[in-house]
Amino acid sequence: MKTGLETLILPAGAAGAEAAARALAAGGLVAFPTETVYGLGADAANATAIAHLYAAKGRPAFNPLIAHVADIPAARRIGRFDTRALKLAEAFWPGPLTLVVPKIEGCPVADLATAGLDTVAIRIPAHPVAQAILRAFGGAVVAPSANISGHVSPTLAAHVESDLAGRIDLIIDGGPVSVGVESTIVGCFETAMLLRPGGLSRERIEAVLGAPLARPSLEAESDDSQPLAPGMLASHYAPRAPVRLDAREVTPGEALLAFGSARLPGVDTASAVMNLSPTADLDEAAANLFGYLRSLDAKSPRAIAVMAIPEQELGEAINDRLRRAAVAR
Ligand code: TXA
Ligand code: MG
Asked: Which residues of the sequence carry a binding annotation for L-threonine (predicted)?
């Protein structure tokens, strides 16, 4: 692994985008903001840079990466888009949606980044800083979330720094992200599949498709030989403290991650309380989720109790991440 690197932190802006593009072209690892979470970018065509990326994150190499591009013509130089995939791309790109499509012949994305699959995950991010970097660089950039594998995803440059300083070349600081959970991943297979709920709600995608999205079965999710969404390992997004879901009361020494205006019994004995959205706004809750989990975890509570969150709109992604955080390790 490349450790002991001097990690430079630059503000977003024209000079930052140019520096990011130069570092990517030289095979470097560059963290930058997208509207969902901060990503850790590498040149999608450079297998050595991608190997460094896996090592820097401690990420298993069977877990493929998302290729980020600036526009739909660039996406079509990587993947094959049928009518249905193109319809989704045109409706939601740039934005918090990743499409898994067949690779085109001679796909420039290195095999290491796609874990040997004949499909590729593609996203056009909407964040102006991500867009500026992609345009300055010119090629596709693979970018997983910029955290140590298994940790909570970063929504601030400071989160990236605390996980990856000394392991990557550059961090572009563009302030807090707006969406706060990772992109929704849709597999454009025979039936369209929701591989990962995320920052674009199922409801909005189904409205454009005019059909429901299938969910991979639990067996398919955990079957290594048939990786549909290979990165959806159970114990992901994990703080150090145990996470207790659907809390209806607080027990002494627990931290409370609240949602809405209800006041739980025992809340006065909580070691800390943060409210994802006092007005029960699911977009606001998604934006606050990972930062609040990090903040509560930093206080080393006995456990983090989490109030119930409705399973609709961005609540589906929030509950998905919380369930993974709650899996005992
Ligand atoms: O919002 C996001 O998607 C962020 C930002 C940085 O763009 N990126 C992100 O990447 O969350 P990562 O690496 O943490 O998650 C990518 C997911 C993994 O679950 C991986 O298994 C899945 O995408 N994936 C990648 N290629 C795939 C493929 N060909 N088929 C199925 N799943 C794939
Ligand atoms: Mg991740």
From this structure: 36, 68, 123, 143, 183
